[in-house]
Amino acid sequence: MSYELKCAQESSQKQDGTIQNLKETLKSRESETEELYQVIEGQNDTMAKLREMLHQSQLGQLHSSEGTSPAQQQVALLDLQSALFCSQLEIQKLQRVVRQKERQLADAKQCVQFVEAAAHESEQQKEASWKHNQELRKALQQLQEELQNKSRQLRAREAEKYNEIRTQEQNIQHLNHSLSHKEQLLQEFRELLQYRDNSDKTLEANEMLLEKLRQRIHDKAVALERAIDEKFSALEEKEKELRQLRLAVRERDHDLERLRGVLSSNETTMQSMESLLRAKGLEVEQLSTTCQNLRWLKEEIETKFSHWQKEQESIIQQLQTSLHDRNKEVEDLSATLLCKLGPGQSEIAEELCQRLQRKERMLQHLLSDRNKLVVEHEMEIQGLLQSVSTREQESQAAAEKMVQALMERNLELQALRQYLGGRDSLTSQAPISNQQAEVTPTGPPLGEQTDQGSMQIPSRDGSTSLTAKEDASIPRSTLGDLDTVAGLEKELSNAKEELELMAKKERESQMELSALQSMMAVQEEELQVQAADMESLTRNIQIKEDLIKDLQMQLVDPEDIPAMERLTQEVLLLREKVASVESQGQEISGNRRQQLLLMLEGLVDERSRLNEALQAERQLYSSLVKFHAHPESSERDRTLQVELEGAQVLRSRLEEVLGRSLERLNRLETLAAIGGGELESVRIHHKHAY
Fold it and tell me: Per the record, where are the segments of Polar residues compositional bias (predicted)?
């Protein structure tokens, strides 16, 4: 029972650990929500800045002359396209945030339900243990009363046997005294006979009298011998009965010692159960307080989420209206540009539109992949929660089975106690009947004593036969009781083995849960690292896009703008792919570390090439700016043409590199799952490489 109590305490401690882990996850989710709020505020600031830029560009278009209208319209088109792209990204981010909030609310609801179920189960266990304690106390009181009654009966029997022995000794003394008295009478008769011989009577009459007297004396002596033999035989039978009763008393003492051991174990279990009940009561109070706090937090989260949802809906409506207006403006501007542009420039515009569509598709694919990853993580978390709930249900079922088994054992013990009480009552009634059957002869004359002895012999034989039968039946009953006790002990040992198996299963399940929780923590850390990398990359891309836009605003020749736009778009696509390669490279398994290192080295080389291409682009932009400052030099025209050709060559090389990187990404997707320590080494190598 102590082992079972230890197992119950360990299970309660493990449940407390799971509750603390859930609380920590809730805190981490709250911190993530705060970070998301900050990101949303930053996005709102960027939107405000973009609106100000658009307003300034519109004012510049109004103040500018009619000769420079096509270039400004193209610049406005580019600004509008970038604004559309940013607004789409912000809408998608807002949708992600809304989904994350819904998931957090669902997790909080599940935690609250789990805590309520645990509190209800603890109350049920408390009621069952209280009932069981009451039953055990009643059983203890009954056993104490039975023990007191049995001790009283044993004392009474010993006193009765002592009195019987004293009466028998008194009878023997009385018989000896009667024998001495008879010898004196015989001597007197002899003296009388001698005196009569001296008299004148005849010898024949004297001889007849002597013969009669001798016959009477002989008969009385025979009767006395018979009475003495009967007394000794009765004493021997009584001694045998006493021996049998002592053996029965010893067996009963052994049974009482066993019952006392069982009672002591039950008392220890009762004390441990009371301590457990107190601990469970404290846990229930703590859980009730935590439930109240969780409900309060839930209400606050719901209110905050409702306010935030309303604000986001208003922002989304505003963004949709602005997008609709921008789309109309873009359509108008595109129509005017198509009317004004020539045949070659219309093809350039179509290519730009196609590349924008490709870019949107790529972004949609990336978002779908991210959503799939999030859904997979949610499914894993749900599976873990389901496994935890199943383990808890199994433990509850095992506890209920154990309670039922204990109740059955208590009922069997009560039945055995009743059976033993009945046997004790039968054994106590048997010597009373023997005492009533016995009759102690004291102080009558010799003839009456002999007659009573001859009449009492068959009755004593019958009583001794009855006591022998009863003594033979007593050990049989004790043997049956011992068999039942041995069967109960076997059943208890089997129940303990089942409890040990259940405890082992619970330990294994808890080890699996801890391993899964560690894996989840590693995955969450990796996701945080990936999110930080993505944020840094997006910031760098935005800064570079702003620089490119500033350079394009400084340019004058409208014919060079489409080529520059192509190059910038290609560079952005390359960077996005490199970022995706980096994010996917963090999810590689640890069994193929050498292959991963080789692929990462290739990616480092590709990134160095991309950096070279970016430097070439910057040189192109600087040369274009210089050409804009000094437009009459022919040598600079030639250098620009050479640089454009070099840019085309670099573009072809970059396309090849992109094809290789896509192949490597496909290979990386086919690799095994995540490994813990080797992933960290890969990350360190990756950081040193970049």
Answer: 426-439, 449-467
Give SS3 for 37.
Answer: helix
- 58-77 residues labelled b (16+ CB within 10 A) or e (exposed): eeeeeeeeeeeeebbbbbbb
Which residues have a Cβ under 8 Å from the Cβ of 682 and sit 6 or more positions away?
585, 586, 588, 590, 593, 596, 597, 600
Q: Give the model's pLDDT for residue 259.
A: 80
Q: What residues have CB less than 8 Å from 81, skipping those under 6 apart? A: 330, 356
pLDDT given at position 687: 41
Centroid of chain to Cα 240: 64
Give me the pLDDT at residue 108, please. 72
- Name the DSSP letter for residue 199: T
Identity of residue 67: G
What is the gyration radius of the CA atoms in the chain, in angstroms?
Answer: 55
At 373-398, the pLDDT tens digits run: 767 766 776 776 676 667 667 766 76
> Which residues contact residue 352 at a Cβ distance below 8 angstroms, ignoring those fewer than 6 apart?
562, 565, 566, 569
Q: Please compute the mean of the pLDDT values over residues 546-564 and round it to a whole number.
A: 51
User: What's the DSSP call for residue 630?
Assistant: S
> What are the tens digits of pLDDT across the range 511-524?
766 666 676 667 66
* Nearest-angstrom CA–CA distance, 402 and 267: 18
Question: Is pLDDT at 299 greater than 60 in this prediction?
Answer: yes
Is-contact 654 611, C-beta < 8 A? no
The predicted structure's pLDDT at residue 517: 64
Phi, psi of 558 (to 5 degrees): -75, -15
The Cα 679–Cα 100 span in angstroms is 27
pLDDT at residue 558 is higher than 50 = no
- What CA–CA distance (Å, rounded) separates 635 from 22? 70
**441: left (phi > 0), else alpha (psi -120 to 50), else beta?**
beta
User: What gap in Å lies between CA 506 and CA 511, rounded to an integer?
Assistant: 9
Q: What is the DSSP string of 217-267?
A: HHHHHHHHHHHHHHHHHHHHHHHHHHHHHHHHHHHHHHHHHHHHHHHHHHH
